[in-house]
Amino acid sequence: QVRLVESGGGLVQAGDSLTLSCSHSISTDKMYGMGWFREAPEKGREFVGAIHWSGDSTHYGQAARGRFTISRDNAKKMLYLQMNDLNSGDTAVYYCAATTYAIGTRNPNDYRWWGQGTQVTVSS
Known about the structure:
Elements: E1 4-7, E2 10-13, E3 18-24, E4 33-39, E5 45-51, E6 58-60, E7 68-73, E8 78-83, E9 92-99, E10 113-114, E11 118-123
Parallel strand pairs: 2-11
Antiparallel strand pairs: 1-3, 3-8, 4-5, 4-9, 5-6, 7-8, 9-10, 9-11
């Protein structure tokens, strides 16, 4: 069983930056990809970005591309999402997730474990 716990959400102003963290319990010998998703009211779960188990490769959803950066520190068992130039459209609950695939995918159904989510609210 893998446990994921997000932190770092909060209320920020448009144009601000924010970094989300995800503490996990993935064993260092497990080559699990990870990803970030978000869910806003009346919207489905949206892919934000994903990362290879090694941290060497990432890919992003359209809304995140160019503004958000995903990274991971496997020794510390942490996943991060650095978000810059936030706008009201980024307001959502953000979830980290882990998959048995080597790299996270865009499909939430590919992820086996999920955190409880952290709220990000961007005020314009």
